[in-house]
Give the backbone structure.
Amino acid sequence: MLFSNLATFLLLPAAIRAAAVSNSTGACNNSPSLCSKPYDQVTYLGAHDSPFLRDESTDFSTSGNQYYNSTVQLSAGVRLLTAQVQNPEDSNALHVCHTSCDLLDAGTLRDWLAEVRTWMESNPNEVVTLLLVNGAEATGSALTAQYEAAGLASLSYTPSGSSSTSQDWPTLQTLIDSGTRLINFVPDLNDDSGAAYLMNQWNYVFENDYENTSPTDYSCEVNRPANFVGRTSEAISKGRMPLMNHFLYAQSGGENSLFTIQEPNATYTPTTNGDSGTGNLETAADACKQEYGRAPSFILTDFFNVGPAIATVDRLNGVSNPVGRRRVSTANEAPSSGAAAMSRMMWGLSVPLLCAYALL
Ligand SMILES: *[C@@H]1O[C@H](CO)[C@@H](O)[C@H](O)[C@H]1NC(C)=O
Ligand SMILES: *[C@@H]1O[C@H](CO)[C@@H](O)[C@H](O)[C@H]1NC(C)=O
Ligand SMILES: *[C@@H]1O[C@H](CO)[C@@H](O)[C@H](O)[C@H]1NC(C)=O
């Protein structure tokens, strides 16, 4: 304890007390109470399609799933990032792209992994999970080459024992102390030669259905992997970790029905990620907790900052005073950049000037 007794502590000016309380030393994933929990017993907030942004950098692409980049996501408390690995046309390069690199190309896999590494290096008490959908059908060694190049291989956790069973997970503190605090899942990775730290997702994690277009569609039942469909309680008893997809796609069809790219239903996000209204996260998470007999390990959201979704995750973790997080706006819109704010300000100035001029 920094202060020898409570009385001394209370005598300190309020500003110093606040600084001491927000010092995250001794916390794991933003709370001291999570350090002793096994990895699989913590609930993590996930940013679905983490690198695919709906902001100025993508011209506010409707294929974007997040308003803030992966660095901001992590600083705000997100601890699961998902992405899709694809090849740009006529290329073997590995990029992170949404569905196709023609639609939304967020750059190379290596650069994105390096962004994660930079954040993890400056946040040494944090355990982070990556889930890479391997749309490029890259081999394990092609993927690990990018991990090596980005400096993430040495931070990655390798499971002990047979890779085809779930296991007794280490606590967050153990992962942190051993320096292997990045957990990596890749669905359907069969060629994992030389890639022991890229875990085949389906040996460890099950998911509910992710294709929901109506807020009454959500289900907690296993949708993937196929061998656990209809056997949710068995998946739980065999130690598979529940990943709860909780995001809404816009209704497809109509004019664009020949070319349906699923886009997030952004207008409904305040309810989807919130705590009231049809299909809200708070109620849905409790329903899954009830069904599973345990809280979901992962809650995957679009536009993670809205809701805010992290409030539900904190409640499930019993965390009431998170430390070391950077606040992010909960507004259901992209942050305004300097340029956009400047142009609004100029507009704000010019309108009165124009009006004044008109009066002359
Ligand atoms: C947090 O507190 C510890 C002592 O309790 C101190 O050593 C460390 O420098 C502090 N960190 C920050 C970022 O203030
Ligand atoms: C992420 O977004 C923040 C805020 O907009 C920005 O300052 C930062 O440079 C971005 N980081 C990366 C790696 O793009
Ligand atoms: C988004 O979801 C709401 C609630 O179901 C619905 O009213 C609205 O039409 C949806 N928007 C789109 C673009 O699908």
Remarks:
- Strands lie at 44-47, 80-86, 95-97, 105-108, 128-134, 182-186, 198-200, 205-207, 241-245, 298-301.
- The mean pLDDT is 87.
